[in-house]
Amino acid sequence: RWVFSTSSNDIRASDSSSTTVIVTAAGYAPVFVDKTSISGVDTLVVQLRNASGTQTVWYSTAIGTFTQITDSDFTSLAHQGKMEFMDGFAFVSTRDKIFNSDINSLSSWTASNYITRLATQDIGTGLGKLGQQIISWGTATMEVGVPGLAKSYGMPSTIVTGQRHYYVVLDDILYWVGSNPFGVFAYNGERVEKVSSLAIDKILSERQFYYVSSIGFQGKKAVSIGIDIPSASTQRTFLF
Above 70 in pLDDT, residue 146? Predict the structure, then answer.
């Protein structure tokens, strides 16, 4: 289990016995963390972002060494949200396309390896994953690469100072804070259901949310939506 933090301009990864400085980069902070398998080897991927939305991505198989993805076909992309991983490929969204890495590689990317968002002329905001589906959100739509499964539920911009993971999978259901309309939505791989009340919708439409996660207590599980920037001394969250 690794914990990611910042100390001055150092971006750090720590386990129970050591701390490694991933990179010294003023203004950057960890925003998304995930794990994938590259040729059968578990590999951790951490995305760093600054206030303007610029991302750098680093990966590691051991906490002592991190490698940056430096392929120009990757670094030239205007990343929108979290990277996702499936079947030996890494995926990243831009405003209108979804790019993928070369097979079984994080370091190698090819400029022509992409698909264009299909549903409508919408601005891509990020990717998600549920089972074997890679979900592409725009501000007003979501799609999974099959035109018949496109839906008119979007997600607001993920380029927000202090924002972290914007969706969570709990008991095989994906939850996220949506836009157009505002609200908390659940997706089971086929159908979308709105799970928030009008009162919660109003609060979410009037303020920023900073993460979507899960929490367990007394044998129960809940979706947790943080509504205070991570640096705030008071932290409030909605639980569903």
Answer: no
